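S., here's the first fold you wanted:
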Amino acid sequence: MMNPVSARLAAVLAALALSGGVATVTGAAQEQSLSDQGEARREAQAGTQLSLREIERRILPQMRGAEYLGPAYDSVARAYRLKFIREGRVTYIDVDARTGRVIGRSH
């Protein structure tokens, strides 16, 4: 079963493949990313979910020895995807923004 963040990424990639328009999908993805970031800030300020800093404070110590490459936020899934690399291997940690619980891990 695909987690919500992976499902959304798959949908974006499918749209890209069907449209043949890299610029259109890239622009839409960037616009959605900015919208998601704003949504994450609003939800954290409202107290309905944890801030990115709190999520990072909980997850980064679990990834000792890996370089943290940064976050992405999915407003539909209300989840953060944190990206790490260690020895040339990328790992994604998906975290429920409401609870801080790890909901997925992929390599």
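And the second, which I think is the more interesting of the pair:
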Amino acid sequence: MGKQHKKKYPAENTAEELEELAQETEEDEEEEADEEQDPGERRAIRRRRRIRNQIIVYLVIFFVLAGVTAGGVVVGRKVALRIQDKKQEEALEKELEEAAKEEERKEELVIETPEPVEEEAPEEEDILGELAKSYFSEMSIENKVAGLFMVTPEAITGVRTATQAGDGTQEALNQYAVGGLIYFSNNIVDKEQIMKMLSNTTTMSNYPVFLAVDEEGGDVSRVANSSIEVEKVEAMSAIGADGDAAKAREAGETIGSYLKEIGFNVDFAPVADVAAGDDSALGNRAFGSDPEIVKEMVSNAVDGIEGTGVSACLKHFPGLGSTTEDTHDGRVEITKSLEEMRASDFLPFQAGIEAGADFVMVSHATAPALDDSNVPSSLSRKVITDTLRGELGFQGVIITDALDMTAITDYYTPEEAAVMALEAGADMLLMPEDFEKAYTAVLAAVEEGKITEERIDESLERIYRVKCAGKLE
């Protein structure tokens, strides 16, 4: 046997290595063949073997190339797919990036509506309040104090009976710029006379002035019971007994209309007291004893009076209906409990306030249930400020009953009564026993700081709100 060549073939060979291997194999076979055959045959055999080996080599190369090509195709496909996936990812990322940028641009362009912030609503412009302040803000303190008084024309002129407004009235109003004047039967001669008197007084006053009268209907009717011919209105007790609240409104309209024509702008009516019965000190002046009926009557009467351009005044808070004595003649006490007063006496006053009454008159009766110090209600802070202002919510003008009644004069001087009433919260002082003493005392209290000028201004603002609300012409 010839030489044996033991070869270790690698798992993977290149085309050149295969060709070299084939040549080595051929040479070995040729050597073996040379040893056994003649030269001619050996050449033929070598030639066939060479051809065969070449074919083998070509086949091997072909299959290797085919394998490589197939692998390349697979790898290519994978690479292509990977590239395609990559491109899709990049395209998606680009789209997302563009979308994000677009959102940013929109956020920059769109002005977002802010969340509503709860804030206190700004107060509406208080035109009436500003107008009111324009009258008294530049007043001297003397004129401010005088503006808190409502007196008879005799109180400032010094005459026995005033039936005209002439030079004496002009001089008096220049000295005392009182806030109002009240007229009685003795001031009324006839329609032409009283109309001229009121008109002249309005012209002579440096400031708007209240011109008031007691015109309740029935017995207490200064105009209707004079020589002036007007439509007479029956007593309120008769209207209340009928039970028709519309008649109370008609009564108010009738009274307000003729007062307006004559020149009055304040009517001290209606009576808002609930009568306790036939023995009530108010007699036929009250609408009745049923609080619900009285409430309806008072509300309608106020509506009727105020509708004519005349200011109505509810009286006599906190309620005189249950008393049998008259404050004109001395001390009077309301014996009801607070619960009883809330369930009865307060109801008509509350109804009248809601109907738009510009004034409430406070009586001189004591009310221990409201103020155990037993001072007259007209001088009591607990009655005026705590109850009438605080509990019933009245924001208009609070005026005292006439301060010349013995329920006041038997216990207090004119100076004491005037200062106490203002300290209690009253806005206007009606008919002090001695106007000049009361006026001087209030002025001194302000100058000494016992009563502040701001406190005076508070009352003047309420007064001038009414005066500026179209009721004074």
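Why I say that: Residues 15-105 form one domain. The first helix runs from residue 15 to 36.

Talk tomorrow,
H.
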